[in-house]
Write a structure and sequence with these properties.
There is one protein chain. This protein has about 575 residues and is of the alpha/beta class. It is built from 17 helices and 21 strands. The protein folds into three domains: about 15-70 and about 185-335 and about 485-565, FAD/NAD(P)-binding domain; about 75-175, no CATH class; about 340-475, Flavocytochrome C3, Chain A, domain 1 (Alpha-Beta Complex), CATH 3.90.700. The strands form five sheets. Strands 1, 2, 3, 7, 8, 9, 10, 20 and 21 form a nine-stranded mixed β-sheet that branches. It has a four-stranded antiparallel β-sheet with strand order 14-15-17-16. The chain has a three-stranded antiparallel β-sheet with strand order 4-6-5. The N and C termini lie close together (about 10 Å).
Length: about 575
């Protein structure tokens, strides 16, 4: 039996187990619907399927949560949510659609995007019905990458950027789950509790290794490799996995070594555990940012980026789907986050490439800036400030009330050996830029700031500032700067039927009994990410898959010879 070529910290995926008669195979567990991956998408799929009255089992390689629990807990919702109305914001599904059509660039059909927008209010209300709280307090100062505690509704994308706005007034649609700190854990805790309350049956520390298909190609279950519950191996596995997630931001290399130890425990102590899923399987294990082989194959330019996600984001769901014949798309699409807000005054500087040429509107959302930085500029760029703007940015970073993960890297970037020059020409020489290119970039910026010309990249007047007070500073915002990490997460996934979430084969036909949701599937945020869009899509696509798989009529498998022992481990 061949396995995929995966690094030691990723789950090994085997070719499907082919069965001619499901009754002749020994099953360790049976259910109507098996959900593989207990993050936000998996939880939403399980809850929706359970609401249709079917028996649901949800399996996870760890103890649940995944990237959703590590996120900021922001759900992109609009069209007139209760929170928007309380804040005095006017919004409509059409205005939301017009904006997102610009951001998504046709990654899903217009009808699917329209449905996503029209269901947005109901989906947020659905989350609230399961205990997740939302509120309407908005942060001062307009735009931020993540609001401080006490603020829960904000402009989480490019809504305030003139080049991205439509005919309707911009509306804040980033709904941060009420809580303290990064609120993804709060949102997930409510979904986790709701699953248990609804009667969803969990199967933890159980990594899916292969799907089981009948002789018609229908997915009828999965083979998981499960650690013995309560064993020392399971306890150590849980402890090391939790430590890897906790310290990823500060010590990624150390956490990679922890993940290797976690995988070693699985190889030594996990045993096969087969689950019969009478109506099928939902794959919801996240993306593949932690799979070096897949990153090397599909998005090699992003291998140096800081990984945004959880250990389970190793592409296991993607690889399981592909093993059963599912097609994929958008695997080269990666969201790279180069936020330069806060400090709030930073976008008044200019971002230039290694030659000194300006290449973007500095006020855009971090992923909108990160994409051209990575794909057009080789991951290398400078943020250029003059003395006046640098002094203001330092004051804001110190006293602006930002999160430590916003203020500390900003201070280090400005204070820890930035390139410096009394004049623009001296700065260019000190940083390896072309003198003429940087001088022209500053001259054109200053002309636009004075109102003498239009800004070449559409920067709004409120974000323009004359940069003419030396000394000048070049802050390194390149992907390789360790003190200012440039995070990334994968966006592509399995192709799915946009009405049901069923996984599609290369001919565009549904694979019976197989569904996908969240970042395992191609979805709303798969072209370019904005904050809250992935969690919103987890709710949308998770509920879609859970409802469709629960409502389908499952035909009994045909009788025949026993399963093919040559493909059994």
């Amino acid at each position: 039996m061949q396995t995929t070529d995966t690094p030691s910290s990723c789950s090994a995926i085997l070719a499907p187990l082919r069965v001619s008669d499901s009754h002749t195979l020994k099953w360790d567990e049976q259910c109507d619907v098996l959900v593989i991956g207990w993050g936000a998408a998996g939880a939403c799929a399980a809850l929706e399927a359970r609401a249709n009255g079917v028996d649901v089992l949800i399996a996870d390689r760890f103890t649940g949560g995944g990237a959703s629990a590590k996120s900021g807990g922001v759900v992109y919702a609009g069209g007139g949510t209760r929170q928007q109305r309380a804040a005095g914001i006017s919004d409509s599904p059409q205005a939301m659609f017009d904006y997102l059509k610009h951001e998504t660039c046709g990654v899903v059909s217009d009808s699917t995007l329209q449905r996503f927008c029209e269901q947005s209010v109901a989906n947020l209300e659905w989350l609230q019905s399961h205990g997740a709280p939302y509120s309407h307090e908005m942060p001062p100062g307009g735009k931020t990458s993540y609001p401080a505690d006490g603020y829960f509704l904000y402009y989480s994308g490019n809504e305030l950027v003139p080049s991205h706005t439509g005919s309707q007034p911009p509306a804040p649609r980033g709904h941060r789950t009420v809580g303290k700190g990064q609120c993804g854990a709060v949102l997930y805790a409510h979904l986790h509790s709701a699953c248990l309350k609804a009667g969803v049956r969990p199967l933890l520390q159980s990594a899916a290794r292969r799907l089981v298909q009948d002789n018609q190609g229908r997915v009828i279950g999965a083979e998981l490799w499960r650690l013995p519950p309560g064993s020392e191996a399971a306890k150590t596995h849980a402890r090391l996995a939790a430590r890897a997630e906790r310290w990823q931001n500060l010590a990624p290399g150390y956490c990679d070594r922890l993940r290797q130890r976690v995988s070693q425990l699985e190889r030594e102590h996990a045993r096969p555990y087969r689950v019969r899923a009478r109506q099928g399987v939902v794959l919801s294990t996240g993306g593949f940012i932690f799979n070096r082989e897949l990153m090397r194959e599909h998005a090699p330019d992003y291998r140096r980026n800081f990984k945004v996600g959880a250990t389970g984001c190793d592409g296991s769901g993607l690889r399981l789907g592909q093993s059963a014949g599912a097609a994929s798309a958008g695997l080269e699409r990666v969201s790279a986050w180069r936020f330069i807000n806060p400090p709030h005054c930073w976008p008044k500087g200019i971002v230039v490439n290694r030659e000194g040429q300006r290449f973007c509107n500095e006020e855009v959302y971090g992923a909108t800036l990160g994409q051209p930085l990575m794909e057009e500029q080789g991951g290398r760029a400078w943020l250029v400030l003059d003395a006046r703007l640098r002094a203001k940015a330092i004051r804001q970073a110190l006293f602006g009330g930002y999160w430590w993960f916003q203020s500390l890297p900003a201070l280090m970037l400005m204070l820890c050996k930035p390139r410096k020059g009394k004049t623009a020409a001296q700065l260019a020489k000190a940083s390896g830029m072309q003198v003429e290119a940087l001088s022209q970039a500053l001259q054109r910026n200053n002309a636009a700031a004075r109102g003498e010309a239009e800004d070449a990249f559409g920067k709004s007047p409120g974000s323009r500032q004359v940069l003419d007070q030396g000394p000048f500073y070049a802050c390194d915002i390149s992907v390789g700067n360790p003190i200012f990490p440039l995070g990334a997460l994968t966006l592509g996934g399995l192709k799915v039927d946009e009405d049901t979430g069923a996984a599609l084969d290369a001919q565009g036909q549904p694979i019976p009994g197989l569904y996908a949701a969240g970042r395992t599937a191609l979805g709303i945020p798969s072209h370019l990410y904005i904050s809250g869009l992935s969690l919103a899509d987890c709710v949308f696509s998770g509920r879609r898959a859970g409802d469709a798989i629960a409502r389908q009529v499952c035909n009994p498998t045909q009788q025949g010879v026993a399963y093919d022992t040559t493909s059994a481990r």
